[in-house]
């Protein structure tokens, strides 16, 4: 955790988002980051076990999108399932998404389908992997 109480990984994702987008999106994200500096102490008052219902709700919303997944391609559906299942089980949306990114890149690489790996996805997966190793 940094001085403001936000997860360092979140800041990495925000910076990557700002680098990949421009215009009004960057201004809106910047405004919310500044707002989060003041609201972070309030969010820390919520106990960890109280966030589980919100994580399960997010998993239910994600379940509605599971029909759009290519179920005949294991390199597509395994990362999606890892993401959806590990969000509530790890009590962390960031951990679930991070492990999904890592699984996606690793499965595509092991299958020899390097052209299907977007550079931004690979960078985000590497950032999550470094976070898991060193944090």
Give structural notes.
- It contains 6 helices and no strands.
- It has 135 residues and is mostly helical.
- It has 2 domains: 1-45; 47-135, no CATH class.
- It is globular and about 45 Å long.
Question: What features would you highlight for this structure?
Answer:
135 residues, mainly alpha, 0% strand, globular
Beta-strand residue fraction: under 5%
* Main β sheet profile: none
Task: Give the helix level as a range of percent.
Answer: over 70%
- List how many beta strands DSSP finds: 0
Alpha-carbon distance between the two ends: 10 Å
Tell me, briefly, the overall form.
Answer: globular
Contiguous low-pLDDT stretches (5 residues minimum) are none
Mean pLDDT over the residues = 81
H/E element sequence: HHHHHH
- Give the domain tally: 2
Rg (C-alpha, Å): 16 Å
* Content-based structural category: mainly alpha
Helix count, DSSP H or I runs of 4 or more residues = 6
In short, what is this structure?
With 135 residues, the chain is mainly α.
Write the layout of secondary structure elements.
Elements: H1 8-20, H2 24-43, H3 52-63, H4 74-90, H5 93-110, H6 119-134
Helix pairs in contact: 1-6, 3-4, 4-5, 5-6
């Amino acid at each position: 955790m940094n001085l403001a109480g936000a997860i360092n990984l979140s800041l990495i994702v925000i910076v990557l988002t700002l680098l990949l987008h421009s215009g009004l999106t960057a201004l809106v994200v910047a405004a919310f980051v500044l707002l989060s500096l003041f609201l972070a102490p309030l969010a820390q008052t919520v106990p960890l076990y109280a966030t589980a219902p919100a994580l399960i709700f997010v998993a239910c919303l994600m379940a509605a999108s599971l029909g759009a997944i290519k179920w005949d391609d294991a390199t597509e559906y395994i990362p999606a399932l890892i993401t959806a299942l590990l969000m509530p089980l790890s009590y962390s949306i960031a951990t679930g998404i991070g492990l999904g990114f890592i699984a996606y890149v690793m499965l595509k690489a092991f299958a020899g389908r390097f052209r299907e790996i977007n550079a931004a996805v690979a960078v985000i997966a590497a950032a999550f992997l470094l976070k898991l190793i060193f944090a």
